[in-house]
Design brief:
heterodimer; A: alpha+beta; Ubiquitin-like (UB roll); DNA polymerase, domain 1; 5-stranded mixed sheet; B: 297 residues; alpha+beta; Uridine Diphospho-n-acetylenolpyruvylglucosamine Reductase, domain 2; Uridine Diphospho-n-acetylenolpyruvylglucosamine Reductase, domain 3; Enolase-like, domain 1; 5-stranded antiparallel sheet; 34% helix; globular
Amino acid sequence: MSTTETIDLVPIEVTVNGQLYRREVEPRLLLVQFLREELRLTGTHIGCDTTYCGACTVQLNGAPIKSCTVLAVQADGGEILSVEGLAKDGELHALQKAFSEHHGLQCGYCTPGMMMSAHALLAANPDPSAKDIRKAIQGNLCRCTGYQNIFKAIEAAAAELRGDG
Amino acid sequence: MYPAPFRYHRAASIEAAIRQLSELGEGARALAGGQSLLVWLKMRFGEVSDLVDIGRIPGLDAITQDAAGVRIGALATHARIARSPLAKLLPIVGDCANGIADNQVRSRGTIGGSLASGDPSCDWPVLLTTLDANLHTQGPGGARDLPVDGFVEDLYVTKLKPGELITGISFAMPVKGSAGAYVGFKRCAPAYPTISVGVQLSLKGEQCEDVRIALGSAGLTTIHARAAEAELKGKTLTPATLARAADAAVAASDPVDDQRGPIAFKQSIIKVLVRRGIETAKRRCHGETVEVSHEYY
């Protein structure tokens, strides 16, 4: 297709962190770019941009997805939870507190994606085994921590959320 | 990275999708979960004029089973299949579904998309070749049933005709006493396998009565390793028999030298995985619970 040809914009409605947004988007706009550039929610990061690293992980209708590999038009009618939706009323989420307290981050680039994968795990499985935690973040790469403190942080957040922290 | 511009259409039914794809012509492609297609478009390996989004067509993601067989709709995601009762009933299906990429990709990627991509690194074509599955399509010329074995004719080239869509797959329920295993080896979870192997076998006493073996990422298409099967049929599964089958599988393979490893390395992985697949299937035939999936280096 010639790039001079006009492409019809597509109207979409997406609920992000509980707020409904209506926009008209170009079909090729990726969900991660919709979040970052249209909505200015820059907590979701773009890392590898090729479905490997998981820095762009958000939840779509409760399932973790890599938002660099989903079109914004595919999310039409859907509910997104991004890292900005974790804290409530100025209070950090248990995962955010635990990542901070257990040094589950160094540079922080992978952290939003890590927490969105961990959040999906804890929603489905409040008492995960060490293996469950490893499997839950197998699609999130960290180049700083060596993962050990991330595992500790997720374990601690799980305990906190269960009420036995 | 942005894909080159394209128009977007959303299909409400299979019939509508076939009509749209036919009218829009050869520049149009169907979009399901997009876990292969969107990466391909972003990397600018190719361009499309139009995407017809089939991802919301109702009823295409059903997983049904009865005594005779199993049917899986084209839009069933890897995650949905991994969580299904089928994955427990047939551990080989769980091995495959749980091992594909990572949670995020499994949330979106579909079994139909895995087949339609024609990518020799995809897992479902290998698993479905192992289970002797059929694939069901619908297109401008009507409906067709064709074997998964041979559906991919060459790298990224399938038997799908213009405007034709995969609607689902089906396979006969494996006979009682038969069991299988699907094993893979890859650099990390999100990576495609370096090599993957599917084995389904049935025993009569200690002898191998029947067996099917398929190899993934081991050539330009899924490889049905008939010569390896011939080394096992009617034989007792001793280490020597397994070694001959593994050698035959390597002879049937045609791996390429790429970033996942040199040819000799891949051949050695094929040998290990074929033996591991047979051993796991054999233990499962004996009623053992064995957990296997893709392993990472």
